[in-house]
What we know:
6 helices; 53% helix; mainly alpha
Amino acid sequence: MRQAKKYSGILSGGIPKRHGPHLLPLARIKKIMKKSSVDVKMISGEAPLVFSKACELFIEELTKRSWNMTIQGKRRTIHKEDVASAVATTDVFDFLIDLVHPNTSNHVDLNEDLEKTQ
Length: 118
């Protein structure tokens, strides 16, 4: 019987036709890493993999906490306010406060940031 390879989608739960266990596009991650600083010239092949996994874990954690806010509001759909509440009630996410609360003086326009990275 044929065995699945170490990084095949069968063992890692990955998306078919993708290589490795990552779910986020590595080329996009590498592009963001290069744009983060003029000093970043070279990026090893493993670094985007680590960032991909870190992003996945970050999204999972923020989603779980947002979902708890949704359940407390007796709803079944996560709204922007649920994400904002999750950020506000979790110390680890303090760096996101300016992104999710538009009433602060340091509000960041998400559409503007998206246009800069494309």
